[in-house]
User: Fold this.
Amino acid sequence: MTSERSVGAAPATRDTIELEVLSLLRARLRTPVTVEQDLFADGLITSMFAMELVVQLEEFFAVAIVGPDLKLANFRSVAAMADLVRRLRSGARAAGSDD
Amino acid sequence: MTADGWPGAGVKVAVVGAGTMGGGIATLVLGHGIPVVLVDVDSAALAAAEARIGRQLRHGHLLGALPADRAGGTLTTTTAVAGVAGAAAVVEAVTEDPGRKREVLAAAAAVVRPGTPLISTTSGIPIDELAGGLPRPEDLLGTHFMNPSYLIDMVEVVRGPRTGDAAFAAAQALLATLGRRSVVVRDAPGFVTSRLLHAMINDAARIVEEGVASADQVDTLLQGCLGHRTGPLRTADLIGLDNLVDSLRALHQRTGEERYRPTGSLLRKVAAGELGHKSGRGFHHYGEVPS
Assistant:
Protein backbone atom coordinates (compact mmCIF):
# COMPACT_ATOMS: atom_id res chain seq x y z
CA MET A 1 0.00 0.00 0.00
CA THR A 2 1.36 3.44 -0.88
CA SER A 3 0.29 6.84 0.30
CA GLU A 4 -0.59 7.76 -3.27
CA ARG A 5 -3.26 5.06 -3.25
CA SER A 6 -4.67 6.17 0.04
CA VAL A 7 -8.13 7.67 -0.11
CA GLY A 8 -7.03 10.34 2.35
CA ALA A 9 -9.40 13.23 2.99
CA ALA A 10 -11.31 13.05 -0.27
CA PRO A 11 -14.91 12.01 0.31
CA ALA A 12 -15.32 8.47 -0.97
CA THR A 13 -18.58 7.02 -2.14
CA ARG A 14 -19.67 3.71 -0.72
CA ASP A 15 -18.86 2.08 -4.04
CA THR A 16 -15.34 3.44 -4.00
CA ILE A 17 -14.82 2.16 -0.49
CA GLU A 18 -16.22 -1.23 -1.39
CA LEU A 19 -13.90 -1.41 -4.38
CA GLU A 20 -10.91 -0.56 -2.20
CA VAL A 21 -11.88 -3.16 0.40
CA LEU A 22 -12.36 -5.72 -2.35
CA SER A 23 -8.93 -4.83 -3.65
CA LEU A 24 -7.37 -5.32 -0.20
CA LEU A 25 -9.05 -8.70 0.09
CA ARG A 26 -8.11 -9.76 -3.43
CA ALA A 27 -4.48 -9.15 -2.59
CA ARG A 28 -4.70 -11.77 0.18
CA LEU A 29 -7.33 -14.29 -0.85
CA ARG A 30 -7.02 -16.75 -3.68
CA THR A 31 -10.68 -16.73 -4.48
CA PRO A 32 -12.94 -13.90 -5.66
CA VAL A 33 -15.43 -12.54 -3.15
CA THR A 34 -18.65 -10.61 -3.47
CA VAL A 35 -19.68 -7.53 -1.54
CA GLU A 36 -22.36 -9.24 0.54
CA GLN A 37 -20.60 -12.60 1.00
CA ASP A 38 -20.23 -13.79 4.61
CA LEU A 39 -16.45 -14.16 4.78
CA PHE A 40 -16.45 -15.99 8.11
CA ALA A 41 -19.20 -18.46 7.23
CA ASP A 42 -17.40 -19.30 4.03
CA GLY A 43 -14.13 -19.81 5.92
CA LEU A 44 -12.32 -17.20 3.88
CA ILE A 45 -10.93 -15.17 6.74
CA THR A 46 -9.75 -16.09 10.18
CA SER A 47 -9.90 -13.95 13.29
CA MET A 48 -6.18 -13.24 12.88
CA PHE A 49 -6.72 -12.09 9.32
CA ALA A 50 -9.62 -9.96 10.51
CA MET A 51 -7.19 -8.20 12.84
CA GLU A 52 -4.85 -7.55 9.94
CA LEU A 53 -7.80 -6.12 8.04
CA VAL A 54 -8.51 -3.78 10.95
CA VAL A 55 -5.01 -2.37 10.70
CA GLN A 56 -5.11 -2.20 6.90
CA LEU A 57 -8.44 -0.41 6.87
CA GLU A 58 -7.23 2.05 9.49
CA GLU A 59 -4.11 2.87 7.53
CA PHE A 60 -5.76 2.99 4.15
CA PHE A 61 -8.80 5.04 5.08
CA ALA A 62 -7.17 7.08 7.88
CA VAL A 63 -9.72 6.01 10.48
CA ALA A 64 -9.42 4.60 14.01
CA ILE A 65 -11.43 1.47 14.71
CA VAL A 66 -11.78 1.35 18.49
CA GLY A 67 -14.17 0.59 21.32
CA PRO A 68 -17.51 -0.90 20.34
CA ASP A 69 -16.61 -0.73 16.63
CA LEU A 70 -13.91 -3.32 17.24
CA LYS A 71 -16.10 -6.39 16.78
CA LEU A 72 -16.09 -9.21 14.28
CA ALA A 73 -19.54 -8.37 12.93
CA ASN A 74 -18.05 -5.26 11.33
CA PHE A 75 -15.67 -7.41 9.29
CA ARG A 76 -18.06 -10.15 8.23
CA SER A 77 -18.44 -8.87 4.67
CA VAL A 78 -17.07 -6.26 2.32
CA ALA A 79 -20.36 -4.38 2.71
CA ALA A 80 -20.04 -4.39 6.52
CA MET A 81 -16.46 -3.12 6.35
CA ALA A 82 -17.43 -0.44 3.86
CA ASP A 83 -20.33 0.65 6.07
CA LEU A 84 -17.99 0.93 9.04
CA VAL A 85 -15.42 2.94 7.11
CA ARG A 86 -18.09 5.24 5.73
CA ARG A 87 -19.54 5.85 9.18
CA LEU A 88 -16.14 6.52 10.73
CA ARG A 89 -15.11 8.84 7.91
CA SER A 90 -18.32 10.83 8.05
CA GLY A 91 -18.02 11.05 11.84
CA ALA A 92 -14.46 12.29 11.55
CA ARG A 93 -15.44 14.91 8.96
CA ALA A 94 -18.33 16.05 11.11
CA ALA A 95 -15.92 16.46 14.02
CA GLY A 96 -13.57 18.44 11.79
CA SER A 97 -10.70 16.11 12.53
CA ASP A 98 -10.42 14.41 9.19
CA ASP A 99 -7.01 15.40 7.88
CA MET B 1 -10.30 -8.09 47.62
CA THR B 2 -12.48 -9.20 44.69
CA ALA B 3 -15.22 -11.81 44.87
CA ASP B 4 -12.76 -14.27 43.34
CA GLY B 5 -10.30 -13.75 46.19
CA TRP B 6 -7.86 -11.70 44.11
CA PRO B 7 -6.40 -8.83 46.23
CA GLY B 8 -7.77 -6.07 43.97
CA ALA B 9 -7.61 -4.51 40.54
CA GLY B 10 -4.73 -2.21 41.41
CA VAL B 11 -2.39 -4.97 42.51
CA LYS B 12 0.09 -5.88 39.83
CA VAL B 13 1.05 -9.19 38.31
CA ALA B 14 4.66 -9.76 37.25
CA VAL B 15 5.40 -11.66 34.05
CA VAL B 16 9.01 -12.69 33.53
CA GLY B 17 9.90 -13.45 29.92
CA ALA B 18 8.66 -11.29 27.04
CA GLY B 19 8.38 -14.01 24.40
CA THR B 20 5.24 -15.38 22.81
CA MET B 21 3.78 -16.84 25.99
CA GLY B 22 4.84 -14.05 28.35
CA GLY B 23 3.44 -11.41 26.01
CA GLY B 24 0.17 -13.28 25.54
CA ILE B 25 -0.28 -13.72 29.28
CA ALA B 26 0.51 -10.05 29.85
CA THR B 27 -2.21 -9.23 27.30
CA LEU B 28 -4.67 -11.43 29.16
CA VAL B 29 -3.92 -9.82 32.52
CA LEU B 30 -3.92 -6.25 31.20
CA GLY B 31 -7.13 -6.89 29.32
CA HIS B 32 -8.77 -7.73 32.65
CA GLY B 33 -7.75 -4.38 34.11
CA ILE B 34 -4.82 -5.64 36.19
CA PRO B 35 -1.47 -3.82 35.96
CA VAL B 36 1.49 -5.84 34.71
CA VAL B 37 5.22 -5.48 35.10
CA LEU B 38 6.88 -7.34 32.25
CA VAL B 39 10.49 -8.38 32.80
CA ASP B 40 13.05 -9.56 30.27
CA VAL B 41 16.84 -9.38 30.11
CA ASP B 42 16.56 -8.19 26.49
CA SER B 43 15.28 -4.63 26.14
CA ALA B 44 14.61 -5.17 22.43
CA ALA B 45 12.39 -8.12 23.31
CA LEU B 46 10.52 -5.89 25.75
CA ALA B 47 9.97 -3.22 23.12
CA ALA B 48 8.75 -5.81 20.62
CA ALA B 49 6.45 -7.35 23.23
CA GLU B 50 4.99 -3.97 24.14
CA ALA B 51 4.01 -3.37 20.51
CA ARG B 52 2.68 -6.91 20.17
CA ILE B 53 0.63 -6.62 23.36
CA GLY B 54 -1.03 -3.48 22.03
CA ARG B 55 -2.12 -5.39 18.92
CA GLN B 56 -3.18 -8.43 20.94
CA LEU B 57 -5.35 -6.31 23.22
CA ARG B 58 -7.18 -5.07 20.14
CA HIS B 59 -7.41 -8.61 18.77
CA GLY B 60 -8.83 -9.85 22.06
CA HIS B 61 -11.44 -7.09 22.03
CA LEU B 62 -12.24 -7.74 18.37
CA LEU B 63 -13.09 -11.33 19.26
CA GLY B 64 -14.94 -10.42 22.44
CA ALA B 65 -12.40 -12.43 24.44
CA LEU B 66 -11.53 -9.56 26.81
CA PRO B 67 -14.05 -7.69 28.96
CA ALA B 68 -15.29 -4.61 27.09
CA ASP B 69 -16.45 -2.85 30.25
CA ARG B 70 -13.07 -2.71 31.98
CA ALA B 71 -10.27 -0.20 31.50
CA GLY B 72 -7.02 -1.90 30.58
CA GLY B 73 -4.28 -2.30 33.18
CA THR B 74 -1.06 -0.34 32.96
CA LEU B 75 1.99 -2.05 31.48
CA THR B 76 5.47 -1.32 32.74
CA THR B 77 8.61 -3.03 31.53
CA THR B 78 12.02 -3.58 33.07
CA THR B 79 15.16 -5.59 32.51
CA ALA B 80 15.60 -6.12 36.27
CA VAL B 81 13.99 -9.13 37.92
CA ALA B 82 13.82 -7.04 41.10
CA GLY B 83 10.95 -5.24 39.35
CA VAL B 84 8.64 -8.08 40.41
CA ALA B 85 8.75 -6.79 44.00
CA GLY B 86 5.25 -5.98 45.26
CA ALA B 87 3.52 -8.23 42.72
CA ALA B 88 0.68 -10.42 43.97
CA ALA B 89 1.76 -13.19 41.60
CA VAL B 90 4.82 -13.89 39.47
CA VAL B 91 4.36 -15.67 36.16
CA GLU B 92 7.58 -17.22 34.88
CA ALA B 93 7.55 -17.55 31.07
CA VAL B 94 11.21 -17.77 30.09
CA THR B 95 12.80 -20.28 27.72
CA GLU B 96 12.00 -23.95 28.30
CA ASP B 97 15.32 -24.53 30.04
CA PRO B 98 15.17 -25.80 33.62
CA GLY B 99 18.37 -24.04 34.65
CA ARG B 100 17.19 -20.69 33.35
CA LYS B 101 13.76 -21.16 34.90
CA ARG B 102 15.22 -22.05 38.30
CA GLU B 103 17.48 -19.00 38.15
CA VAL B 104 14.58 -16.64 37.36
CA LEU B 105 12.28 -18.21 39.94
CA ALA B 106 14.92 -17.96 42.66
CA ALA B 107 15.59 -14.30 41.82
CA ALA B 108 11.86 -13.54 41.96
CA ALA B 109 11.38 -15.49 45.21
CA ALA B 110 14.06 -13.34 46.82
CA VAL B 111 12.04 -10.12 46.39
CA VAL B 112 8.39 -11.09 46.78
CA ARG B 113 6.54 -11.73 50.02
CA PRO B 114 6.26 -15.34 51.21
CA GLY B 115 3.02 -16.88 49.97
CA THR B 116 3.14 -14.98 46.67
CA PRO B 117 2.50 -17.63 44.03
CA LEU B 118 5.37 -18.29 41.67
CA ILE B 119 3.67 -19.63 38.58
CA SER B 120 5.78 -21.44 36.01
CA THR B 121 4.30 -21.70 32.52
CA THR B 122 6.51 -24.62 31.59
CA SER B 123 4.85 -26.86 29.06
CA GLY B 124 6.36 -30.02 30.48
CA ILE B 125 9.22 -29.71 32.97
CA PRO B 126 8.06 -31.26 36.24
CA ILE B 127 7.26 -28.54 38.76
CA ASP B 128 9.09 -30.30 41.55
CA GLU B 129 12.29 -30.21 39.51
CA LEU B 130 11.99 -26.43 39.42
CA ALA B 131 11.04 -26.16 43.09
CA GLY B 132 14.29 -27.68 44.27
CA GLY B 133 16.41 -24.53 44.39
CA LEU B 134 13.79 -22.22 45.82
CA PRO B 135 13.81 -20.81 49.36
CA ARG B 136 10.05 -21.60 49.59
CA PRO B 137 9.23 -24.49 47.25
CA GLU B 138 5.66 -24.39 48.56
CA ASP B 139 5.08 -21.14 46.64
CA LEU B 140 5.65 -22.77 43.22
CA LEU B 141 3.04 -24.29 40.94
CA GLY B 142 2.57 -24.74 37.21
CA THR B 143 -0.01 -23.15 34.99
CA HIS B 144 0.26 -24.34 31.43
CA PHE B 145 -1.40 -21.73 29.23
CA MET B 146 -2.08 -22.44 25.58
CA ASN B 147 -1.13 -19.98 22.85
CA PRO B 148 -2.74 -17.51 22.27
CA SER B 149 -3.32 -17.37 26.00
CA TYR B 150 -5.57 -14.30 25.82
CA LEU B 151 -7.98 -16.27 23.63
CA ILE B 152 -7.91 -19.83 24.97
CA ASP B 153 -9.75 -19.88 28.25
CA MET B 154 -8.73 -23.33 29.51
CA VAL B 155 -5.47 -23.84 31.39
CA GLU B 156 -3.77 -26.90 32.79
CA VAL B 157 -2.78 -26.29 36.40
CA VAL B 158 -0.05 -28.43 37.88
CA ARG B 159 0.19 -28.84 41.60
CA GLY B 160 3.62 -30.11 42.58
CA PRO B 161 4.11 -32.42 45.57
CA ARG B 162 5.45 -29.48 47.57
CA THR B 163 2.99 -26.80 46.37
CA GLY B 164 1.36 -25.20 49.42
CA ASP B 165 -2.28 -24.29 49.93
CA ALA B 166 -1.69 -20.52 50.12
CA ALA B 167 0.10 -20.21 46.78
CA PHE B 168 -2.29 -22.63 45.15
CA ALA B 169 -5.36 -20.69 46.34
CA ALA B 170 -3.86 -17.36 45.30
CA ALA B 171 -3.09 -18.66 41.82
CA GLN B 172 -6.60 -20.06 41.48
CA ALA B 173 -8.00 -16.68 42.53
CA LEU B 174 -5.96 -14.98 39.82
CA LEU B 175 -7.15 -17.46 37.19
CA ALA B 176 -10.76 -16.92 38.23
CA THR B 177 -10.30 -13.15 37.98
CA LEU B 178 -8.91 -13.68 34.48
CA GLY B 179 -11.95 -15.74 33.53
CA ARG B 180 -9.91 -18.90 32.97
CA ARG B 181 -11.24 -22.39 33.46
CA SER B 182 -8.73 -24.86 34.82
CA VAL B 183 -8.10 -28.54 35.29
CA VAL B 184 -5.67 -29.43 38.07
CA VAL B 185 -3.36 -32.36 37.39
CA ARG B 186 -0.50 -34.05 39.20
CA ASP B 187 3.12 -33.34 38.44
CA ALA B 188 4.68 -35.48 35.68
CA PRO B 189 6.83 -34.83 32.58
CA GLY B 190 4.63 -33.14 29.98
CA PHE B 191 1.67 -33.17 32.39
CA VAL B 192 -1.34 -34.20 30.26
CA THR B 193 -1.53 -31.87 27.26
CA SER B 194 2.12 -31.84 26.19
CA ARG B 195 2.56 -35.54 26.87
CA LEU B 196 -0.20 -36.28 24.38
CA LEU B 197 0.05 -33.40 21.93
CA HIS B 198 3.82 -33.27 21.43
CA ALA B 199 4.01 -36.94 20.51
CA MET B 200 1.22 -36.39 18.00
CA ILE B 201 2.91 -33.36 16.45
CA ASN B 202 6.21 -35.24 16.17
CA ASP B 203 4.37 -38.09 14.41
CA ALA B 204 2.53 -35.66 12.15
CA ALA B 205 5.88 -34.17 11.12
CA ARG B 206 7.19 -37.67 10.38
CA ILE B 207 4.15 -38.37 8.21
CA VAL B 208 4.99 -35.29 6.13
CA GLU B 209 8.69 -36.26 6.00
CA GLU B 210 7.79 -39.71 4.70
CA GLY B 211 5.61 -38.23 1.96
CA VAL B 212 2.46 -39.90 3.25
CA ALA B 213 0.61 -36.59 3.20
CA SER B 214 1.28 -32.85 3.06
CA ALA B 215 1.07 -30.67 6.16
CA ASP B 216 -2.15 -29.22 4.81
CA GLN B 217 -3.63 -32.68 4.28
CA VAL B 218 -2.68 -33.83 7.78
CA ASP B 219 -4.29 -30.79 9.37
CA THR B 220 -7.36 -30.95 7.15
CA LEU B 221 -7.94 -34.60 8.07
CA LEU B 222 -7.55 -33.99 11.78
CA GLN B 223 -9.88 -31.00 11.57
CA GLY B 224 -12.50 -32.61 9.37
CA CYS B 225 -12.45 -36.15 10.74
CA LEU B 226 -11.49 -35.69 14.38
CA GLY B 227 -12.79 -32.23 15.18
CA HIS B 228 -9.45 -30.61 15.92
CA ARG B 229 -9.65 -26.83 15.87
CA THR B 230 -6.51 -26.24 13.82
CA GLY B 231 -4.75 -29.58 13.25
CA PRO B 232 -1.44 -30.67 14.82
CA LEU B 233 0.92 -28.90 12.45
CA ARG B 234 -0.84 -25.53 12.57
CA THR B 235 -0.83 -25.98 16.33
CA ALA B 236 2.92 -26.63 16.16
CA ASP B 237 3.33 -23.42 14.17
CA LEU B 238 1.41 -21.55 16.87
CA ILE B 239 3.47 -23.06 19.69
CA GLY B 240 6.67 -22.12 17.84
CA LEU B 241 8.83 -24.91 16.44
CA ASP B 242 11.84 -23.87 18.53
CA ASN B 243 9.77 -24.11 21.73
CA LEU B 244 8.33 -27.38 20.53
CA VAL B 245 11.79 -28.89 19.98
CA ASP B 246 12.86 -27.73 23.46
CA SER B 247 9.76 -29.34 24.96
CA LEU B 248 10.23 -32.57 23.01
CA ARG B 249 13.83 -32.79 24.20
CA ALA B 250 12.73 -32.19 27.78
CA LEU B 251 10.18 -35.00 27.46
CA HIS B 252 12.65 -37.34 25.75
CA GLN B 253 15.27 -36.77 28.43
CA ARG B 254 12.81 -37.44 31.23
CA THR B 255 10.86 -40.37 29.80
CA GLY B 256 13.38 -42.04 27.50
CA GLU B 257 10.55 -42.61 25.04
CA GLU B 258 11.64 -42.42 21.41
CA ARG B 259 8.37 -40.88 20.31
CA TYR B 260 9.55 -37.65 21.91
CA ARG B 261 12.90 -37.47 20.09
CA PRO B 262 12.48 -34.42 17.79
CA THR B 263 12.21 -35.63 14.22
CA GLY B 264 14.63 -34.42 11.52
CA SER B 265 12.31 -32.03 9.71
CA LEU B 266 11.51 -30.20 12.93
CA LEU B 267 15.19 -29.71 13.67
CA ARG B 268 15.89 -28.57 10.10
CA LYS B 269 13.07 -26.03 10.19
CA VAL B 270 14.34 -24.58 13.45
CA ALA B 271 17.90 -24.40 12.08
CA ALA B 272 16.55 -22.56 9.02
CA GLY B 273 14.68 -20.05 11.19
CA GLU B 274 11.29 -21.42 10.15
CA LEU B 275 9.78 -21.20 13.60
CA GLY B 276 6.10 -21.19 12.70
CA HIS B 277 3.57 -18.41 12.96
CA LYS B 278 5.91 -15.97 14.68
CA SER B 279 8.47 -16.09 11.85
CA GLY B 280 5.91 -16.22 9.04
CA ARG B 281 6.74 -19.78 8.04
CA GLY B 282 6.79 -23.22 9.62
CA PHE B 283 4.79 -26.18 8.38
CA HIS B 284 2.56 -23.58 6.75
CA HIS B 285 3.21 -20.16 5.24
CA TYR B 286 1.77 -17.05 6.85
CA GLY B 287 3.03 -14.37 4.48
CA GLU B 288 4.51 -11.49 6.38
CA VAL B 289 5.31 -11.92 10.06
CA PRO B 290 1.83 -11.68 11.53
CA SER B 291 0.89 -8.82 13.79
Remarks:
- Chain A touches chain B through 13 residues (CB under 8 Å).
